[in-house]
Amino acid sequence: MYISNPDRNHLNVSLIDAVLDVWGKTGEQHLIPIAGRSMFPLIRAGDQVLVTHGSAGIRRGDVVVFRYNGTLFAHRVLSIYEGNNGTTFITKGDNTPQCDPPFGINEFIGCVISIKRGNRKMPIDTAAWRILGWLIAVSSLALVKMHLLIRNRDQKFSEHQPNQFTLFMKRGLRFFPIIVRRVAFVPFCWWKDEKRFVFSEKTMNRTTQNNETGR
What we know:
- The chain is α+β, with helices and mostly antiparallel strands.
- It contains five helices and eight strands, in the order αββββββββαααα.
- The chain folds into two domains: 13-123, Ribbon (Umud Fragment, subunit A), CATH 2.10.109.10; 127-202.
- The longest helix is centred in the middle third of the chain and has 30 residues, at 127-156.
């Protein structure tokens, strides 16, 4: 299933050839700037992602970088298939309604292990983040399958009035992503407020010092 939303997280095209050439020779980790909102709120426009080269150890729920039509994208892995033609990956942006086109090892670039926003850095290759990523991937995959099921059902019974079950499922599909995002993205809110927390802590320390000086 191809993505219809053009606002996907992508890397600057001018960096692609240079990055691939360096990775092909050294296999080192590199920070790469991101644009777009397809992985919001985890990855935002202006963030940088630290990418490690290669596909070893990739699991469902990991955020990976791949190449499609001359552009690099950073999206979450929903499924991994092994076939006669090798490994095939199915990915999707957390903030997009549809999956990306399937791609193989030749298009695979690397795995995102951390996100840099300003002076802050958040690793996402920990056990906790892998579990969270897996939950997001499974819920996203279930949502896509439910959407296809309802769409096929509507096409099959298009001449009839939609029944209560179909209406219930459609309404559920509207609220399901909101519920998942609110539950799964709690750590993102903490990361977003980390700067405020640090500021408050400094302010508290400064206030305490002033009070002690005034005694």
